[in-house]
Amino acid sequence: MANILHADMDAFFASVEQMDQPQLRGKPVMVGGLAKRGVIAAASYEARAFGVHSAMPTAQARRLCPQGVFLAPRMRRYAELSARIREIFYRYTPIVEPLSLDEAYLDVGASLRLFGSIGEIAEQLRAEVRERSGLAMSVGGGPGKLVAKIAGNKAKPDGLLIIEEHEVLDFLHPLAVSEIWGVGPATQAKLRAMGISTIGELAAAGAAELEAELGRWGPLLHGLASGEDLRSVECDRGRKSYGEENTFPEDAVDEEVIEATIIAHAHTVAGRLRRDGRSGRTVTLKFRPSGPGRDFRLFTRSKTLASPCDDGLEIAEVALALWRAETEHPPLRLVGVQLSLLDGNRPLQLGLFKSEESERRDALNRALDDITRRFGDKALQRGEGSI
């Protein structure tokens, strides 16, 4: 039996702002695009009490909560904290599948003998994350990804819910089909036409009938509703490439948020490369558009550099150029940055004709890495207007 945890930081972006600016604690805080057509990326629980939620137009949020505090996102800061939190996860298991900056699956099955039951591991994780980051994290656990994720959502805010194997069907079946990740309005409408509104009704339906109506998605949904979730946690620690990606809670349409996320991912990847004494040449931008007719395909755009790189500024410049070169900028469900074609695991040699600017960047990166190791990632931060 699998032992899977779903860890999710509570109102992550807004909670970080409240932590860094104590005067904002207890106030409704909204993070996102501040322009006329901006969109809310995260809302504190105080803001949610007014009906504000992520992916809501900023103009609508201002109408619902005019007394709220509206802030532009600081993706670099969020990425730094995300990296710190993820390193805590790796202390308990090497099998970690990040879903976004603030969310991940962990397979802790092989860790039970070292750290105790799945519930005990979850409690240790929550306590250590709070101690080292100052932030609250909700955790759900169970024998599969679906159960773990739904349990984590039910545990919010700042809670823990573990579903044992014999409790799975009793837990799932009363819930609405919309609780299954990926079941959006279009699929819900088709299921309603079949008389299906709960996960229990979905499990009771015929798999063949569901396949006829929904295609290959039908039998998969039927299996999940029946408690058959064989999906494994996909570890991201392969060493043919270094990557960072973010699945947005709602479709991202604000260019400021998308580009800030790309920049943050580039710097996170660069920091991990330098930590391991590696560099790479091929920068890849990954993005998954959303919307009618786009069927959640993953697109990639790549550029190979003339020489190996471990500099976040250079990676960000290339990734942004790849994004800006796209003829269409549709709403995005996911965006990520990856560096591959890696140089060997060895100390980097200085080039004979390295430019003064390149040497200055190298010196700056080494200084930043040293300060971060010694004093933590809050010691220094790049300006919000910089790449």
Provide structural commentary.
This protein is α+β, with helices and mostly antiparallel strands and 387 residues long. The chain folds into three domains: 1-167, Alpha-Beta Plaits; 173-225, 5' to 3' exonuclease, C-terminal subdomain (DNA polymerase, domain 1, Orthogonal Bundle); 241-375, DNA polymerase, Y-family, little finger domain (Dna Ligase, domain 1, 2-Layer Sandwich), CATH 3.30.1490.100. 41% of the residues lie in helices and 21% in strands. It contains 15 helices and twelve strands. It has helices spanning 12-20, 45-48, 58-64, 75-92, 112-115, 118-133, 145-155, 168-172, 185-193, 199-204, 207-214, 217-225, 255-275, 312-324, 356-375, and strands spanning 4-9, 29-32, 40-43, 69-71, 96-100, 103-107, 137-142, 160-162, 241-252, 280-289, 299-309, 332-342. The strands form three sheets. A five-stranded mixed sheet has the order 5-6-1-7-8. It has a four-stranded antiparallel sheet with strand order 9-12-10-11, with helices on one face. The chain has a three-stranded mixed sheet with strand order 3-2-4, with helices on both faces. α7 (145-155) links the parallel β7 and β8. α4 packs antiparallel against α6, α4 crosses α13 and α11 packs across α12 (217-225). The longest helix has 21 residues, at 255-275. It is globular, with a radius of gyration of 22 Å. It starts with a strand and ends in a 12-residue tail after the last helix. The model is unreliable at 345-355 and 373-380 (pLDDT under 50).
